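Lecture 7 notes: from sequence to structure.
We start with the chain below.
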Amino acid sequence: MTMDTGGFFNGNGLGPDGGTGNEDYARWMQFAAFTPIMRVHATNGNQRQPWFYVPQGQRVGETAAVEAIRLRYRLVPYIYSYEHQRRKTGVGIVRPLIFDWPQDQNVRNTIDSWLFGEWLLASPVVEEGQQNKNVYLPDGNWTRWSSGATDQGRQTVSFNTRTWERNFPLFIRAGAIIPMMSDADANPASETYVTSVGGWHPTELNVEVFPDAKLTSFDYYDDDGDSYDYEKGEYFLQTLSVQRSGTQVTFETASPDPVGSFKPQLQYYTVKIHGNVASSVSINGTAINPVANLTSLTGATEGWVAGADPDRGNIPVTYVRIKAGEKQSVVLTTR
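Predicted structure tokens for the same chain:
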């Protein structure tokens, strides 16, 4: 399944000549970011680059379309891991809600919301000028991607869609473990800024974690990205898991899959554990002192700091930096 974004000129778009307009472009890019293959096509002389679709008063880097593209890049570790699962199981990253909630009659005919992997529920805006979108959330606890607001499942919630930027109906499922590009690799001002994922081999990753009372896990996967050697066992696979029990949260990384012989350049995970912040943290049974701030955490071998997540409406989060590729056990005692 692919999404050839913005590919067809039919005279019914929102542009002045009936072609693709700024809103069309932004919403299609948000839609396409949560499909297996995202690529932007054009025909009949239409332009497809984001700098041709900049609303008045904005710069190209501030647009909802560019925001969607950057989010797609940041999710590459998550997406690539699911491609490995698809090869093994035949189940793709885009999944109808009925896959996970077969007894819920409310999702049997849902076509405008879907799971993107196990942990994200996407519900794109597909109507011109839509001010609010009603989204049905299945059973469970859900966190809104940008605001950090929480919703109980088994109900329809109203999502304000008046603005385009940082305002896509995307929900995080309780128990989520989501590996993403590091802040440095995703920052245009950084020396390590990633402009193409072809041949990209991260040395560190962020891992977004939303603990649940039940044990949940995610299999992080990587390979050389260039050859078919993964068919011969040249890959890296490590299971990450988390569980909340009372005031404690346990996050663990298992020993890498012994079958996989690929040695990635990955050295560290910065684990962002959302919920009540930690008062103490131990790594492999040893208590670790907190660092002064998030800047101090960057470049450290290991450590932690409590704070707020600016990408999620400043909800509480504990940042923990640990070595990747090793068996690790992190225990947070929360306030």
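Points to note: The longest strand covers residues 236-245. The first helix runs from residue 22 to 32.
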